[in-house]
Write a structure and sequence with these properties.
single chain; about 220 residues; mainly beta; 8-stranded antiparallel beta sheet; 5-stranded antiparallel beta sheet; 13 strands
């Protein structure tokens, strides 16, 4: 292929040598399962044209959230995502399932959202629920989100207690777990401080919030 043609859902020799791993092979749902279940919720997600597609369009969340079968503690994660009208999804990290608690209740979320559909009501409430945010806790300092139907690249770096969210090459959020500031934000949020983000390792999760979303080129590099 010409050098300007990118082979999606593959690793370059340099990436493989640096320790990167594909979390989505572009053709199957291998390596993923439903949150709180052993199998994959085929009704809500499918693989089409090298993309992992969240099919839900009715807001009923029948498909269910999905998580990787592998767990990661410290890592660099990159992923491409595409938004449609009213897309509401997210990428979660250090996910450990808890009885009686959904994915959004137990782990931090890199928000993936059609900001134009939700911005006004969320802004009125003063909430941090837009793309690149750390959902409900940290608001992005810049918003380089591309338009609906265009691909964006997200990046999450977790190194010990330090976390960074990146969007299209720009740092949107940086925070430290378990500081006094962080604990105060959790206390004031919609989360239960006993449940939320208390694990040092866990799965990567993708949210089905009853709206369509597209992912590809999901790859991770464990730091240690």
């Amino acid at each position: 292929a010409p050098p300007d043609v990118i082979a999606h859902n593959t690793l370059s020799a340099a990436e493989a040598a640096a320790g990167w791993e594909l979390l989505f092979d572009g053709t199957s749902t291998a390596g993923w399962r439903g949150y709180g279940r052993d199998d994959f919720p085929a009704g809500g997600w499918t693989v089409e044209g090298g993309e992992l597609v969240g099919l839900s369009t009715t807001g009923d969340m029948d498909g269910g959230d999905i998580v990787t079968t592998a767990e990661f503690a410290d890592f660099e994660l990159v992923f491409d995502f595409k938004l449609g009208p009213a897309t509401n999804s997210g990428v979660f990290y250090r996910v450990q399932e808890q009885d009686g608690a959904g994915l959004w209740e137990v782990a931090p979320e890199y928000q993936v959202l059609d900001d134009t559909a939700y911005f006004a009501p969320d802004a009125a409430e003063g909430r941090t629920h837009r793309t690149g945010d750390n959902y409900d806790l940290h608001e992005a300092t810049t918003r380089p989100t591309r338009g609906l139907g265009e691909w964006n690249t997200g990046r999450i770096v977790v190194d010990g207690s330090r976390v960074e969210h990146w969007l299209n090459g720009e740092l949107t959020v940086g925070y430290e777990y378990y500081t006094e500031e962080w604990e105060a934000l959790v206390e004031a949020s919609k989360f239960d401080p006993e449940r939320y983000a208390r694990t040092e390792t866990g799965a990567i999760g993708l949210q089905d919030h009853g709206t369509p979303v597209w992912y590809r080129n999901i790859k991770i590099r464990p730091i240690r």
